[in-house]
Structures are given as structure tokens and as C-alpha cells.
Amino acid sequence: MEGRNLLLLVLTGLRIWLLPGAGASDDDHSEHTHRVSTSQCGEYSNQVLEDGMCRLIATLPQLDDQRCPDMFRCTDEVSYWLHENEERKQQILALRETVSELQEELRNHRHRVKVLELQTEEKNRVNSSLEQRFHELEEHYVEASTLLHIQGSLIYDLQAQIHNLTLLVEKVKRNPGCMINIVRTSPLISAQEALHPEVQHVRNCPIDCASIYYNGVRRSGVYTVVPSLGAMPVEVYCDMDTEGGGWTVIQRRQDGTVNFDRSWKEYKEGFGDLHSEYWLGNEHIHDLTSQGDYSLRIDLEDWNGKHKYALYQSFRVDDEDTQYRLHVSGHSGTAEDSFSWYHDKQGFSTPDTGNICAEISHGGWWYHQCFYANLNGIYYKGGRYSPKGRNPLGPDGIVWFTWKESDYYSLRKVSMMIRPRTFRPHLSP
Questions:
Q1: Do 379 and 410 contact (CB within 8 A), yes or no?
Q2: What's the pTM?
Q3: Where along the sequence do coiled-coil regions lie (predicted)?
């Protein structure tokens, strides 16, 4: 290039073009161009561009041993921009340091937030555990309170029973002849032996459930009584809940588990289970009702769960010589009378005695051509039944005609119980 070199320098905020001198002309520069010419070091020009950059154009001779003057000094504009660029560098460095510090502080904040989150989770777990424990303690407290209430009731009941037993023991001490509820008479003892002065009953023995009630026992269940005329102990079920209690239950039907198609001897002595279905026995019923004036209550329930009852002010059964003839009168209650008006003064019959009504009905009862009430018939589930294919001679269910007005409706539950006509319940044990 005619003994000249092209040198390009790029500085921050500054462009420098070193061009051959022969190719430069005045038309290549703007109106802000300054030109300098030297004989030994060539010439140069500078120009301020629109974007604020400084443009230098210089032509240099190739002089190996010639030292050129310092002619690359920028104009005021160039100095200004170099100064600005330096300040911006410093600002950028300061900003970088600030950003680095902020980043470090942010990392520290994040670490503290993470620690706080972990502490919060731990507190939440502790709180949840405490709440669950508190809930469990509440449940235990409720259970303990319930058990305490039950135990208190049991203790109160036991105290009442102990008090009643204490009174009974004191009574026995004063007249120790009756020990029947403590040591029962052996069933091997004959009736003649039982009449011996050493074993015959004493007047302070309970003669029925009303006597047991008056002795302070108010819980329904099975007890032993000694009828005053029979002198033989007999187990009975005492109803201490119905209409004041004191009832001696002589018959019950409730589920059909016991067959009531029995012989004369079985109806005489009794059969079944005192806790479910049974017939107490005609001989025991005679002994009980012959020691005073007794009332009879008959409770009825149909297959819809409806209840009715019939109450008779007077009830008595004669001895076996009269076929346990029935005496019943004085009806009242929610069930119309189907018993006294038709069956009063009738003797007892069973299928093996030759009575056609007992044979048709498959049970023992005070039949009279044949019945309007029959509580010892066949247990039919569901209520209405048909005798076809089983017994074409007539109905044989558990019947109370004036309630259902049908011989072919068998009741679901029935019971017969007696107590003294003069019985009056006590208000407190």
C-alpha cells in the first residue's frame, strides 16, 4: 500500500481506523471532521458520530527510526466519552458488587426462611400430636365418667340390696325357721316328709312375688316362694316392673320354642323355661290362688307390635278333684273380655283327657265348646294362619277373639300373672 500500513484499533467507546493516505479524501468525512497534516508522521482526522462514538482516521508513513508525535489525543468530545465510559465501568463494578452482596443476603434470607419453615412444620406436628392426645384424653374422660356413673349406680344398688339383705338377716335371726331362699329343700323329700315340723314352712317365708317385693327386692327374675297351703317351695318368675311390680307369672308365650301340646300330668306339674316360655303348673297355681284374694292380668301383643291387656279383679283355681275349675271375674283393661264371660266355672282339659276341644286345639285350657280365648294353642308365626292340611277340625292358634275377631289369628306374645288384690306398690325400696 505505497509503503504504508493499515492499523485498526478498537477501544471502549472509541473506534480508530488507520487507513492509507492515498485513499482518503475530504468527501469521506462529516462537517465535524478535523484534519491535521505533518510531513514526517502523515496526517489524521477525527469525527464525532451520531451514536456518540469517536472516529479517527490516520495515515502513517513507514519510518523505522522516526518517532511520531502524540497525535492520537482525542478531541473534547472523545475525552468526554472516555471519561463517561470510565465512570460507567466503575458504576458497573459497584453494581456487580452490590448484586453479589444482595445475592448473598438473599441466600441467607432463603436459608432463614427454610429454617423457619422446618420449625413451623415441627410445631405443627407437635400441635397436631397434642390435639390428638387431647382428643384421646377427652374420650377417656367421657368413658371414665360413664363408667364412674355406672359404678355409682351399681354401688347404690348394692348398698340398697345389702340394706335389704341386712333386714332379711335380722328377720331370720329373730325367726330363723325360713331358710328356703338360702338352702333349698331337696326335691327327693316327699310331701309327707315336708309336713314334718322340722321342715314344714314358716310364716315369714315369701309366699309369692308380692311378698318378695315387700321384702325389698325390686328386680325382675326367678325366685323361690313357699305357698302357705302347699308347704313345698316352687321357683317362679317375678315381674317387678309392670304396673308397680309384685306379679307372679304363671304363663308366658313369646317365640314358640316350647311345645304346649302336653299331657294332664305335665300341665299339673308345670313345664318350660322360666326365662322364656312356660306353664307354671295347675297345682302351683291352685296353691298360690288359694292363700288369699288374687287378681289376674293378661298381656297381649300382636304381630304389628300393638299391646293390649285384660285385668280381672278376682282369679282362683280349685284343686285337682274339680279338674282345677276356674273362677275369674271383674274385667277391665284395654282388651275386651274374651275369657271370664265364656270360660268362668269351667274345668281344665288336656288332649289326653278325651276332651274334643283340647284335642282340636292341641293344648290345655279351660275349654267350653270350645273357646273365645285360648292362650295355650299352637304358636303360629305371622298372625293369620289356615288349618288346611294340618287340622281340619277347627282353629288351634293363640287366640283372643274379641281383639282380632277371628279364630285364625294367632298372637305373637301373651302372658298371665297374678298378685294379691290388695297389693300396693311402695314409692321407695
A1: yes
A2: 0.55
A3: 85-119
